[in-house]
Amino acid sequence: MGIDLGTRRIGLAISDEGARLATPAGTVERSGDRADDHARLAATAAELGAEEVVVGLPLSLSGGLGPAARAALDEVEELRSALGVPVHTQDERFTTVTATRALREADGRRAGRGTRRARAPKGAVDEAAAAVLLQAWLDAGSRR
Fold it and tell me: Model-level pTM?
């Protein structure tokens, strides 16, 4: 299962049984209580039969650990205790950009043609970004 930690929503993705293809799997709205959010993620991981979890790590453009990445690593440590399955991290630089582009293309809209860009439904970008980061992890052969 892939997780894209956001401030308002947490994007989710799952892979097929062969761990070859990542697919968006919804979102979890942040409640304001991280322990509650993690309990809901644990329930979702169990429901989906997740054997491993990959969390996006928002590295800076230079690849360093900025404040956002440090905060994500703190949350990853909490998730390791809450989820009961191995939790890994994956560089998530550009996942939101890639997800947004893919959603626009899927919607048949072309950027730069003078057409007004429609916004994706709430959460669509979050779950698509989770799928992008999970796919990158799968493609890298990171599955243990």
Answer: 0.80
- Which CA distances in Å does 133 have to 31, 33, 62? 23, 25, 18
- Which pLDDT score is estimated for 125? 84
Residue 31's CATH number: 3.30.420.140
Give the residue numbers spanning the domain of 28. Answer: 2-139
Cα-to-chain-centroid distance, residue 32: 19
